[in-house]
Specification:
The chain has 356 residues and is mainly β. It has strands at residues 3-8, 13-18, 34-38, 42-44, 50-56, 63-66, 69-70, 74-77, 82-86, 93-100, 103-104, 112-116, 120-126, 134-135, 138-139, 152-156, 168-173, 177-181, 186-189, 191-198, 203-212, 215-216, 223-226, 235-236, 240-248, 257-264, 269-275, 278-284, 286-290, 297-304, 306-307, 310-311, 324-328, 333-353. The protein contains no helices and 34 strands. Strand 29 (286-290) and strand 30 (297-304) form a beta hairpin. It is flat, with a radius of gyration of 27 Å. It starts with a strand and ends with a strand.
């Protein structure tokens, strides 16, 4: 059987068409994208997680969605076999899909992404006068009375029918602060304090975090540290935002570990001051781990630790660790170790709930 040659006008492509088998060079359709794996499968409901998607056909991606909600960003790499995408706000279990001019990836088990609720500030209060249970597992409301009658209800932040009425808290670091670089330069403070308020179900704000009795041994010379307009030995941060999140997942949400990320309200500078004649700039953010979740408490304990100039790696679920970096004099920035133990005392009895 012969072969007929056809010239396609305007395409400049000559296709050899065999009646038994047709093939046209340069006109074969490219395959639709395929997702084979999500390297991060769990993230917070507030979004913001960078997820690495494995698969093929990602070159030319026009959109990525989490259960139909657009990703906050996407960036293919590795010749279209991988892509970094940002998780948006979401709830429950959703499918991640990738769309290119060649089509949209099919729904497969490998594309499932689970949103874990962000722990909340709030109160657990009695609904009635009958006997009930409040345990380490959290607030057992009438719709979750697995241990019998449990007339307690979780009231989140300030938007529920029985909201918190007082927002303020104080932040006390009686044992001070210790910053240590890998080159053994140290800055230590005797004590610290701050005033702030709970600003929402998962957020708080600090007006400023102030430390006293601060000195350094930069270049082996002991010197007092001082911020602009402050007294000798006093340094402070600018206004800080706090966002609650999950620092470690367990098999049950009740045992999840939580933390609060403190980051500058504006820019990236955490604090600026001088130690003797050496200017010091600290930038970045810290995640303070919160102690005893799902307990009815007034005192909330926060802790960050470091060893030999390296801050302990602490992050929200599968996100890069929040770190501080310091610049001494005209040098460059370097990672800094941080030791800080503090207690937040609220105006009203308050707890944080991991099983919201």
């Amino acid at each position: 059987m012969g072969t007929r040659r056809i010239r396609i006008v305007g395409l400049g492509v000559v296709c050899a068409v065999a009646f038994a088998l047709m093939a046209c060079a340069g006109s074969a359709l490219a395959a639709a994208p395929v997702i084979s794996n999500l390297e991060q499968r769990v993230g917070p409901e507030v979004g913001g997680l960078s997820v690495t998607v494995d698969g093929s056909g990602f070159t030319g991606t026009t959109s990525v969605s989490f259960g139909g909600v657009p990703a906050t960003f996407f960036a293919p790499f590795n010749d279209g076999h991988q892509m970094h995408v940002g998780s948006p706000l979401g709830v429950g279990v959703v499918d991640v899909t990738v769309t290119t001019p060649e089509g949209t990836s099919e729904i497969v088990p490998a594309d499932k992404f689970t949103y874990r609720p962000t722990p909340e500030f709030g109160i657990c209060a009695k609904v009635g006068f009958e006997a009930g249970t409040f345990g380490a597992g959290g607030c057992l409301g009438e719709d979750n009375s697995g241990f019998g009658s449990a007339p307690y209800q979780w009231y989140r932040g300030f938007e529920s029918t029985r909201p918190l009425k007082q927002r303020g808290f104080t932040f006390d670091a009686a044992k001070g602060l210790k910053l240590e670089t890998a080159t053994k330069a140290k800055i230590t403070c005797a004590s610290g304090s701050a005033g702030g308020e709970i600003t929402g179900d998962t957020t708080l704000a600090l007006a400023t975090l102030k430390f006293t009795g601060c000195q350094s041994n930069i270049a082996h010379a002991v010197a007092s540290c001082q911020g602009s307009g402050l007294g000798s030995g006093e340094i402070e941060t600018g206004p800080l935002d706090g966002q609650m999140g999950i620092t470690a997942l367990s098999f049950t949400p009740a045992k999840d570990l939580t933390g609060v990320e403190l980051s500058p309200l504006a820019g990236e500078t955490f604090s600026e001051f001088s130690c003797g004649a050496t200017p010091v700039t600290i930038r970045g953010a810290i995640i303070l781990e919160m102690k005893k979740p799902n307990k009815m408490v007034e005192k909330l304990g926060w802790k960050a630790t470091a060893k030999k100039g390296v801050q302990k790696t602490t992050s929200f679920v599968e996100q890069p660790a929040a770190l501080l970096e310091v610049k001494l004099g005209e040098g460059g920035y370097e990672a800094v170790g941080l030791k800080l133990t503090a207690t937040g005392v609220t105006e009203e009895a308050l707890e944080f709930n991991t099983i919201v």
